[in-house]
Amino acid sequence: MPPHSDETQARIDLTAALRSASRMNLGEGICNHFSLAVPGKPGHFLINPQGFHWSEITPGDLVVVDAQGHKVSGKHSVEPTAFFIHSEIHRGNANAACVMHTHMPHATALTAIHGGRLEWASQNSLKFYNRVAYDENYQGLALDEAEGERLCHALGTADVLFLGNHGIIVVGPTVSATFDDLYYLERACMLQVLAMGTGKPLRLVPEAIAAKTGRQMNQESQQAALHLEALKRLLDRDEPGWSRLD
């Protein structure tokens, strides 16, 4: 089989992330969105279409939009509010080739409590040492560019933004890197929420060890790509036809 074009591979990768996120219960209804810069087409982005559950999306369903969120190509429409967050972050963050926004439950739980923070209480959490920002100023639905710009500013140079009373945004240079972060962020938050539920104090890792471990974890260059390839094999096994392009 000849290799896929860069855009086709991008479509397959983003679909694999959406479908896998659904299998892990990281999505919410037909809401939440993943977007990805189209290779070789500056200012153009793939995004999941309006009205589709993540579990049913195929590469051919993804829509191409421009940096203002206007549909460029695709069979389906784009939810009107979907790209206000994504467009400003894509434009304003050089590392944000891929943007994933979810209301995944354990991470979102931390946004719903006073002073909610990801604590350095598990090895999983240390993957995000010095990579997290927080927005404490919930402003309602993201219905205009100003709100997207505000969130982009709150994200700054971080890779993860906790949105107060709302959810999270994870950004990265590739689908595999961004999805790997999304997965482990929810796992870290799940462990923290479970530990907090015991009523006993968290056992925090000292800052120096947390910083060291964070560097170690983020020096591993292959693990995220291997994770995504493993998820594709699971999709091939369990969901035949998931990668069709028509």
Key terms for this structure?
246 residues, alpha+beta, eight-stranded mixed β-sheet, 8 helices, 14% strand, globular
Q: What is the structure about, briefly put?
A:
The chain has helices spanning 6-23, 82-92, 105-111, 123-126, 145-155, 175-196, 207-218, 223-238; strands spanning 33-37, 44-47, 63-66, 71-73, 98-102, 132-135, 160-163, 167-172.
Outline type = globular
Counting DSSP E segments of at least 2 residues, the number of strands comes to 8
Q: Output the number of helix runs.
A: 8
CATH class: Alpha Beta
Whole-number radius of gyration?
Answer: 18 Å
Strand residues, percent: 5-15%
Strand order across the largest sheet: 4-3-2-1-5-8-7-6
Task: Tell me what you see in this structure.
The chain has 246 residues and is an alpha+beta fold. It contains eight helices and eight strands. Strands 4-3-2-1-5-8-7-6 form an eight-stranded mixed beta sheet, with helices on both faces. Helix 1 packs parallel to helix 6 and helix 3 (105-111) crosses helix 6. It is globular and about 55 Å long. The relative contact order is 0.16.
